[in-house]
Amino acid sequence: MNDIGISLRDAGVRFEIDSAGESLKSKILSLGRNKSEARYVDALSNIDIEIKHGERVGLIGLNGAGKSTLLKVMARIYPVTSGNAETHGHVCPMFEFATGFEMNQSGWDNIRIRGMLLGMTPDEIEEKLPEIGAFTELGEFLDYPVRTYSAGMFIRLAFAVSTSINPEILLLDEVMGAGDINFAQKAKIRMSEFMRQGKILVFTSHSMDLIRDFCERTIWINKGRIMIDAPTDIAISQYLKNS
Amino acid sequence: MLAIGLIFGRLFHQPMAEFLPFLSLGLVIWGTIGASLGEGAITFVGAEGYIKQFPFPKAVYIFRALVSMHVVFLTGLIIYFFVALSYGKFNLLGIVFSLPGVLFFVLTNFAHVVICAHLGAKFRDVPHMISAAFQVLFYVTPVMYTVEMLKSRHLDFIYLFNPFYYMIEIIRRPMLQGVMPGWDVYLPALGYAVFVLAFAAFIVKKLSNRIVYVL
Q: What is A5-90+204-242's CATH topology?
């Protein structure tokens, strides 16, 4: 099974919402009482998807429909609570750019750390380091600890590192709006190059134009279920008609 | 450490040459146990940004915490070696004899981190509970005072049923006295290690898959 691919069979994810809250104290105190009904949310249910080498898939749906959850299942971050989920290949997840930094280390060190987290070898990183540093346009700020950075600077840094790798499976979660006007322009170009490199691309967006640009197949998700899984034009017209 | 040593050495009427090495080593070991519980409890919570973004095995975060606290442990040991040297108590053979103890010690800390990391992520009040409980434990564990002081006051029970005492003794006794500790120390320490390791395995089985959902 060295083939790159994603396969979900009847997969479901259920979030449990513990009414006793998140503290051990209240848990112990409520032991004696009658157990209140455990509440849960089915974030995803009965998902069947096969994605093969070379496919570019768009995910559309309203906020809270389960798009991000589905991406995290594909990335093996969320274990499914029912059914089966398998992902073969090196995954490059790009979900959020604002977390996963070592606050007290310099920008350069964070580039190295993030690069290794994304699967680069130390040699590769050293080789690409000047190029990544230049792309961020952060200049001397890269020598400062990243806790002094602004939100926009974090995004520049993370974006530059994340897009410098050669991804096998690229999972993107609505990340186009990165940085100020200048950077957004630059980011857009780099992102398109990057997305064309991936052997498998799955991404969520609310921009139908982007989806049309990149994906030949689109999945519309609503309330954790697949509404339609079809060629992009058909899926988008259905989606626009019905929501 | 020096200040505590000087004050309490006087208070307890202890000879400094005995008491200072005893105390410094005890504090180093105690601090590491504390870290395995306290830092252990925030291991997953602190790594939330990584756990939610990357599909790495959870063990990565456990070992990250484990390594850093044992680097601190080794640094502390160096301080102890200086103290011991300056009182002429440095014992090379004792260090060799303490190695099996160090092994059990690390294993026990590993189990502590695993257990606390999972519980600390699931129940956010656990880190506070641990730090409160651990402060109390400090006073009922022979770190600051010696076992002899307890015995002479018939307070033996304080250490006899305290697993942390044995965790300390399997390292402290050989290092200070240059002798291999007997089974009376090893067995409880080993028993506790096996117990926490088994509990850790149970916790992993129960909670590991749920960690990303509770963060």
A: Rossmann fold (3.40.50)
